[in-house]
Input
Amino acid sequence: MDAQAPILIVGAGQAGVQIGESLRQEGYEGELLLIGNELHPPYQRPPLSKKWLIEPGAHTALALRGADSLRRRRIDLRLDTHVSAIDRAASTLQLASGERLAYSGLAFATGALARALPLPGAALGEVLSLRSINDSAAISAAIRRCAAEQRPVVVIGGGFIGLEVAASARKLGAEVTVLEGLPRLMSRVTAPIVSEAFERLHRSHGVELVFGAQVTGLAGSGGRVEAVRTADGREHAAGCVVVGIGVVPDDRLAAAAGLACDRGIIVDDCARTSDASIVAAGDCTARRLADGRLLRLESVQNAIEQAKSAAAALMGRERPFRAAPWFWSDQYDIKLQMVGLSHGYDQVVTRGDLQKPAFSAFYFQSRRLIAVDSLNRIQDHMQSKRLLDHGLSPTPEQVADAQFELQSLLKDAKLATADGA
Amino acid sequence: MPQVTYIEPDGRVRTLQVDAGSSVMRAAVDAGIDGIEAQCGGNCACATCHCYVQDPWLDKLPPPSDDEALMLSNVAAERRPNSRLSCQLVVEPALDGLTVELPDRQS
Output
């Protein structure tokens, strides 16, 4: 390996940019090249299903960093550049253009791809999925056309992306149908009580929700989609279809290079791959937990924290990422903030007003707090995040008691800030 | 164009010319100021753009919204009376000279 060669970061999204910045903070002085396969400089993805869909604006408003920022940190950026292979033995990377780049360190931040609908008609026009800035612009335009032509927008999938798109489409004045295969919304990540609050919310905004919908195909004419068929024989009229059925971690390059992958590049909690000299961060990873399970997280926090771990690992240091995962979603006037992982819970206790809604669902496993979903309850979210990060747990009875102050547990552990609140 | 001065966690001081209407956070991440993470991109959802507003500017700013006040209650670094979230501070001509100090940790 050529020690003078640059560190190469494949993928110029949230994780890739953070690896570069953190390498500088870790004291790396050598050359640094960030390689992106899109045309646009690094940008934020979360707004693409929210604000941006309603009001697409200048690309600069979505930028993760300004050009000055990358310059100041001496991070070179190559856009519209496709990597075709990695040669680990030679420590080189091959570009689609044929160019070969030597590296002294390598990081994968290749993100994820929208899961494709493996059904007849999925290639029809106006069948769209959301991942990139261009996808968002296309969906925004399609929704506007549907609103103008009074044809419904059909969303396949009642998860975060599907529901955020549904909320945005209603704001743009389109009729919206959401087809969900399971009996409730966001069932993979939330308790029924949270799903029900979102069902009420979407129905009150005029969204048609169809549960247990097994999509069998899409029909159209003139190359353009006109309906979505479900197994019960129904045809749901569609001016456009947005497919929001999850993502597939993009581990193709890493897998081809012989790194251990299992629906994601397998990393430890220091972001090291099965080749300890190569790191990976963000949506492209599957993190091996202490109990052997693989954890796949798609979030900004995960991208940033794993990227910090990855940069430290490239410098030969261990900086494990063990903080409680957190996520957020905006739908209409509801801010949903989630912290922890609720999988495996055996008790849910709520706090607040379920009808308004302004409440939190606290998930317990054997009486220990493991996760909290908050709807317009910022204080619950912030306090729970601190509790979970520090391994503290209220009892279910304390959570059920509206008079009990969660902050008091932080104060007892001397974690509360001076003025509490 | 109003000037905003940032004191980075290691004590370095940088002054930026900031477009009126931009946020103190946005200008900082565009220019590569150290000490702001802004994980949620300015949605008042993460409290990782915490800053300390230096005298005499605190009183010249609109007070925090309820959401911001709640987020500030559990920032990662020490909360002080002059703590604010920089994504919620919109730069305007009257704030020319605004100075903020950035904490050593945001998450």
